[in-house]
Every structure is written in structure tokens, then in C-alpha cells.
Amino acid sequence: MISCPGRAVGRPISADEYRGDVMPTCPECGAPGVPLMFGLPVPEARDAAADGHLALGGCLVPEAAPNWQCPRQHRWWDPDETAWEERLLAALLAHGYTEADTTS
Ligand SMILES: [Zn+2]
After folding, report:
1. How many contiguous H segments (helices) and E segments (strands) does the chain have?
2. Distance, CA 66 to ligand 1 centroid (Å)?
3. DSSP H stretches of helix in the chain
4. How much is the pLDDT for 59?
5. Ligand 1 centroid vs 101 CA: distance in angstroms?
6. Which residue spans within 14-60 are E strands per DSSP?
């Protein structure tokens, strides 16, 4: 059995809890990573990237795409996609993104 510390079963995890919980760090230099996003970025994503809260990987998604990037541009893939989604969404929301605003 592999236990998963920090993730209680049967209880929703808030973005706030995640922030102090799992901090993916670069396997090459140990710096804290930010979510790496592929595809055409929304304006909020460009703002967040400018502030260093996420990284933009470009419009084309490569095979075996990495999902995290450190400030030194190292990229790696982390299997915890939930943490990635939480961080990405938190960065977008912090820059004014709203999930309902998808048609404008
Ligand atoms: Zn690095």
C-alpha cells in the first residue's frame, strides 16, 4: 500500500490548503515550479505569466507534455494533475479570470 500524505480521503481539498501542502519543485535546480500551460492563452493567463504565476508553453502541445516549469525554464511532468489544475486556476482567478466568462 502506498499512502498519500496530505490528502485526506473523503474530504474536499481547498485551493488554500493545497498552497501550503504540495509545492512541486524543480528536479534540476530545486526551485518552486509554476503550472505550465499549453494552447492559446486567455488574457488572464498572459497577465499571470507576466507575473511569474504560471508559464506558457506555446500553442502546440508536444507529446508527453511537461506540466510544470521553474523560473530557470526547466520543465518536468508531475503526475498530480489535480495540484496542477488547482494552481493554474488559482493563478488565473488571481488575475481576474472567471470560469463563467467563456463566450466573450
Ligand atoms: Zn529548475
Report:
1. 3, 4
2. 13
3. 15-19, 43-50, 81-94
4. 87
5. 34
6. 34-38, 55-58
